[in-house]
Amino acid sequence: MTATSPLVLACPAASSSTDRVQLGHGSGGKMSAALLRERFLPHLGNPYLLRLADAAVLQVPAGEVAVSTDTFVVSPLEFPGGSIGSLAVHGTLNDLAMMGARPLCLTAGFVLEEGLSLDLLDRIIRAMAEAGRAAGVPIVAGDTKVVERGKADGVFINTTGVGLLGDGFRPAPDRARPGDVVVLSAPIGRHGMAIMAAREGIAFDAQITSDSADLGPLVECLRIAVGDSVHTLRDPTRGGLATTLNEIAAASRVGLLIEEAALPVPDAVAGACEMLGLDPLYVANEGVLVAFVAPDAAPGAVAALRAHPLGRDAVILGYARAAHPGLVELRTRIGGSRIVDQLPGEQLPRIC
Amino acid sequence: MTATSPLVLACPAASSSTDRVQLGHGSGGKMSAALLRERFLPHLGNPYLLRLADAAVLQVPAGEVAVSTDTFVVSPLEFPGGSIGSLAVHGTLNDLAMMGARPLCLTAGFVLEEGLSLDLLDRIIRAMAEAGRAAGVPIVAGDTKVVERGKADGVFINTTGVGLLGDGFRPAPDRARPGDVVVLSAPIGRHGMAIMAAREGIAFDAQITSDSADLGPLVECLRIAVGDSVHTLRDPTRGGLATTLNEIAAASRVGLLIEEAALPVPDAVAGACEMLGLDPLYVANEGVLVAFVAPDAAPGAVAALRAHPLGRDAVILGYARAAHPGLVELRTRIGGSRIVDQLPGEQLPRIC
């Protein structure tokens, strides 16, 4: 952290302004260069980024690449279990992982609000760097803009990822087939409810921490165990599991039958949802995947997920069928049945 | 455009809310899907994007790819000569072009402010689509977030580009050499002053339009004419030509000698800068490149640039030398000389 201090130490008389983002940090001139050198490069520096060129140059083998982009506007910027920095890395890595791609690199584009605490920015950048390092993925290109106070909300981060696709493993939202078993890797609702609690200052009986995590290693376990028997992979983020299942049902033209009794919802999440009148099926997750797996490979898929810490509570939720294509039917605990629709409007804004 | 109308037409009674972005458009649920289907896909749709997967999949040959990212926060969102939509496409295409890369694809990440006019959003998306189509580059992946009124400023757009690098043409900021001729493709200052005039409602004697343009074809002219004799290419955007020249001088450890008399500044820009006390050397451009070219290739480079409409006013500005590495010296019209430094703080915020 000492590498990030000179700007502050050099101007003790102006410390009230120099410990916050100023418009000049977005000028493209000396202050921009100082911000980059003192705040970003000490944490994110790697040979690609340190070249400070207009673009990073990477070697790729012939084949197919996956490209994914996501902008993060989560509020608050820090929450139990993570921050916008770690979330921005995990979110895009997971989008690549759901396509069966292995990440090659990430880019990061920042919108900073004038007045943002540089200490907070430091923590966010450090969280990004740590998440990238843990995944072994460099952030190869970046951009920083500054807008006037009141024209953004602290910081927004876009991350875009490039990944490499190999042969024989090509999960896709339109590849689910009748008979496929629906496997869920972990209990639902933690990320959305952690954000909700942090934002509204609600103290639930037990603290809920975000499940934000890099799902790449978990997908690798699946790939090794059952390979292309995994037809579809999705991480149910915004809109929750209900929205993701509806999207898959529509894209693959299959019906889905899901058992409510099988659906894992942590007690703290269930309690918080009940208190706030929310349905955990629509609450965002950032460390959960749903896999559609050929029936004969389902036991192997569940075992492979359970062998990894992120999938130790993996369960079979139900199955896909030819009947009622596009519809998601939930068989309730009391033996009834209801259609689970997509979220019609807004449930929890700015959870990612 | 008819494909974008159903949302409005279906709810005539609620037209005051349905012609503006609402928080529900960022939910990930039905309203998000409708916004995507009705506002984005009619203009931007292509086989990659229409698959609606977590990532786009593209074929690449073995070799090197360039990756660049840029977030656009320009204010106002529309200005003479362009909008944030066209600028977001040109800006990232140009970053790829400056590395000698041919663009393969772009991604687009949007932050929308609640209350943004959907008509304005339509125009912005259409401008992006047109700029992408003109360059022959598809927008293969996208993301949309919505934040509450007062937490952004209309719309911010991140674009990230992937390009392919070929053999034998590898301009880079650290490859300028003593003796290289500094060539400028077009007069400076138009973009920054067009934004300034539009934002402040200043009526100059003549309207100044932004020079925002895709520089890829101009770079292609250079490549064909003189190939790897082009050592360095940069587009002087934020911070203007002065900042770009300083960055190249520092990265390549050369001194630069620039002739003020050779510097092309349109009369309208010069007049506006004088009125506002600004130096055109620090004003942003979005359709100008500066090339460092081996001396014997300089006449060919200038001729190649002049053969293209974007480079018809190309000039030789000066040259690089071994003396005073890192310094940019301007020889003034009256025979004096001054050091041109990087912009110390902020001149014109939010010009890109």
Textual characterization of the structure:
The structure is a homodimer of 352-residue chains. Chain A has 352 residues and is an alpha+beta fold. Chain A is built from 11 helices and 14 strands. In chain A, the strands form 3 sheets. Chain A has a 7-stranded mixed beta sheet. A 4-stranded mixed beta sheet of chain A has the order 2-7-5-6. In chain A, helix 6 links the parallel strand 5 and strand 6. Chains A and B meet through helix 3, strand 1, strand 2, helix 5 and strand 5 of A and helix 3, strand 1, strand 2, helix 5 and strand 5 of B.
For the largest interface in this structure, which chains are involved and how many residues does each contribute?
A-B, 90 and 90 residues
Multimerization state: homodimer
Distinct helical segment count of chain A: 11
Level of helix content of chain A?
25-40%
Structural class of chain A: alpha+beta
Radius of gyration of chain A: 22 Å
Low-confidence stretches of chain A: 1-16
**Total count of strands of chain A:** 14
Q: How widely separated are the two ends of chain A?
A: 28 Å
The mean pLDDT of chain A is 92
Largest sheet of chain A: 7 strands, mixed
Query: What is the overall shape of chain A?
Result: globular
Strand order of the largest sheet of chain A: 9-11-8-12-10-13-14
Strand coverage percent of chain A: 15-25%
Write down the secondary-structure element order of chain A: HHHHEEEEHEHEEEHHEHEHEHEEE
Describe how the helices and strands are arranged:
The structure is a homodimer of 352-residue chains.
Chain A: H1 6-10, H2 15-18, H3 30-44, H4 47-50, E1 56-60, E2 63-72, E3 78-79, E4 82-83, H5 84-98, E5 101-113, H6 118-135, E6 139-147, E7 155-165, E8 181-184, H7 190-200, H8 216-226, E9 230-234, H9 240-252, E10 255-259, H10 267-276, E11 290-293, H11 298-306, E12 315-321, E13 328-331, E14 337-339
